[in-house]
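hey team, just a heads up i'm posting the complex here instead of the shared drive bc the drive is being weird again. everything in one block, sequence lines first with there labels, then the predicted structure for the whole assembly after. its two chains so it's a bit long, scroll down
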Amino acid sequence: MTSSVNFSIISAEIFLLVALCVIMIVDLFQRDKERKLTFLLTQLSLVSLFVMGAQDLGLERQVGYSEHWIKDQFSTVLKLAIYLGTFVALLYARPFIRERNLMRGEYYLLTLFSVLGMMIMVSANSLLVVYLGLELLSLSLYALVALQRDSNIASESAVKYFVMGGLASGFLLYGISLVYGMTGTIIISEIASYLSANQANLMIQFGLVFIVVGIAFKFGAAPFHMWLPDIYHGSPSSITAYISSVPKIAAFGMAFRILESSFGEADIHWTPMIMICAMLSIVLGNIVALVQTNLKRMLSYSAIAHIGYFLLGLSIGNDEAYSASMFYIIVYALMTIAGFGIIIFMSSENKDYQQISDLRGMGRFHPWYALMFTLIMVSMAGIPPFIGFWPKLEIFRLLIADGQVLAAVVAIAFSVIGLVYYLKVVKEMFFVDCEDSPKVSNSRSLKIALSINCMLLLVFGLMPDSIYQYCISAFASLN
Amino acid sequence: MLENLPILSLLIWLPIFGAALIIFVSGQEKLQVTQWLALLTSLATFILSLIAINEFDSSRYYLQFIEDKSWIETLDVRYSLAVDGISLPLIALTSLMTVIVVISSWNNIKLRAAHYLAAFLIMCGLMNGVFAATDSILFYVFWEAMLVPMFLIIGIWGGPNRIYATLKFFIYTFFGSVFLLIALIYLGKQADSFNIFKMHSLLIESDTQMLLFFAFLIAFAIKVPMWPVHTWLPDAHVQAPTGGSVILAAIMLKMGTYGFIRFMMPIVPDASLDMANVMIVLSLIAVAYIGFVALAQNDMKKLIAYSSIAHMGFVTLGLFISFSLLAEKQVDAAIMGVQGALIQMISHGFISGALFLCIGVLYDRMHSRDISDYGGVINRMPQFAMFFMIFAMANAGLPGTSGFVGEFMVILASFQVSFWIAAIGALTLILAAAYTLWMYKRVMFGDVANEKVMGLEDINMRETIVFILLALMVLIFGLWPAPLLDIMAPSVQHFIDCNLVSKLSPEGMCS
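-- predicted structure starts here --
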């Protein structure tokens, strides 16, 4: 049925691994403090991965390696989003890490390792491979956060992240082991066929609870969100921009592979849990974000709220809703990178300006960037015609179609609360008088990249189809 | 050539592209260029709207200038535009008021004038979009997007308490419109299309109708604004710059009542009929109670803001009285009520806009809006006094001005239902005369109050042009409203005949 070894379906992963080794060796012999070659090679490999991945769009689904590995439209689309997000995050990071003495080869290598981990996560067809990918991702991220050794707050974050992440992985693994104990398999499709033949008994439900907890931990959904604001706040901003956006795309892949592909038949057991996490995240994220004065923390809580809306889509549990969730998480990544891009842009001369009040005077002295940041904020708030509106619309539409009008009303009402803190940023930029010009980065590449990223929020907002059709195709090919 | 012109798209996108161009060339040394650019763009838009009126076949109720393109296939959202006799006059009003705002802010705005003008042009395009959209999601996109420039206009160029006012404005209206969104999504699913007119022919059970009614009510009542959700308006008006107040009063408020006409009344007519008495009572409260509140104001802008709420109460009264009239089979009176409401919408656009401009003229010179700071202005500004008098009289509903026509028709229609509704409604004629003319007396007449008033200079050429334009409109539509009524008549007839019939059963519905 399936050939055991099939290099063509893991060619991208092999390519990245080889590229990684090459870059590692090249980096060893570099004397350049700027690490220009490392940077260029890293970006080049991401671009080539993207080009290669784009060829795979529309291909048939292929399974290999004793059904442990899968390559389908779903994984291809997610991988493309991952490459793109990483590319942008590294672009933003360059001026930031240059000023903070973080310009080391490890920064790029660890990022590439985490990309490899994410690719494995979204292409896994067995729970063990999912777990392996997750660990590769997580370990790289722990190290990335810890890269700023001389900063207390970054080290603290790294330890927190490590302990919390380890705990979450433990939960996940324990859940997987319970499921394995009952079904006798870790292959996703075999679990699915087991469940279509048998009822999910108490032991499987018990395991499912642990799996859901592990996934919710990784997403930072309430009530498992406590680590998230601290770590986003404590990490160097360029790393925050990365860990808050791209890994969530992979986490979605993981959640889908585990929850839907394996436990789709037993979805009455996990959708209520996801629903509760979603509503709690929306409520908590939006309300706590209201009182934040630190922009980074505010964005962290807003990220929790966004994850809530995203999980709401996941909890509906049909293909249309999964494509809406996928749309949401990709758009979320696009907006979040831009959002933390603001903080990178506002940090100059090795000093961080993270308070919302530090944005004062932007409207007067840097009107273009103030306008761009306004685009980010209104897009996050879900005002049309910006891109943030469409996935929200789609999720509300599917909730209502599913008959859960009350949940839609509550979620939508909280998005009004969300508006308040996003507008607070716009208010500080435009409405509060300020005599001093705020300090901003003068890196041209950052300025251009950030402007393009923000303009994309409007451009995609005018033609959301250009993203959404790929999300739909990812699920159309599954059946 | 004109037949193939996508005139509605041009009405939307021309000002927006003009604004983009202005932002592109902005810079203090090029202020003149940007001003002329803004004037040209707004004039071109206005001329386009006149062409549209000229080309419009007013003998038919059908939608005209239809544009329908696929926009977001995955969501089945279409870029579809069209106008009928109800929306076309509002588009023309929007375009005209934008020209007036551009002229009136000439050299007046010191801070980032180019951005100010660009914001108004963007607003103009988006508001035209609201009136022209026939796809409900497209409508919602314009409806929400419009808030952003207004938010910035009040927040950047507003008065001392602008931040509070603009946040209140944005959050209040956003809160309302999310319920609109839920209702639209639900209806889109039921009708299997987001087309507004497909929603009109949907059969809906009475319980669902009631829920939809409240969703629409929250959204549109906040926008109108109706008592008791009107509190954002005085704040927003007082803090907004003159141009912002003009657009807010002249056009944005009309969107609430336009929403009633386009969405609430045709889609949920049975619930509207059930709730018509509540709506009539709310309208009467707006007319009477807010009228008294206006009487007590010392801030001129606040006074006009409250007067706007009271006058918009007349529009909602005219709309919802038609349900009571239809229940009694008085179709002609119902048509009169709706037409009166529509005329009142247009006329109030001119009058409130003009009054805010008058206050703007005074504020530019004196930097005060307190009535008590003024007195005897007529001695220094006789020309201004004349125009201000015309608009004050129109606001009071003097026969011969456009303010009279709509109010008279609505009162006449409500008389068919109940003497008391008409009586309370007619109270506005007294109250409006009281607060407007009393304000006029305190500001304009008497001896010159202080040194500052002594130093006033009369209106200049630019201001005169603006006022002549508006005064002509007020007087023309007051003396000869027939052209306006003609454009509206078939659409209103259709609205009454087909849209307000019961949606509980297919019986009696127009095909």
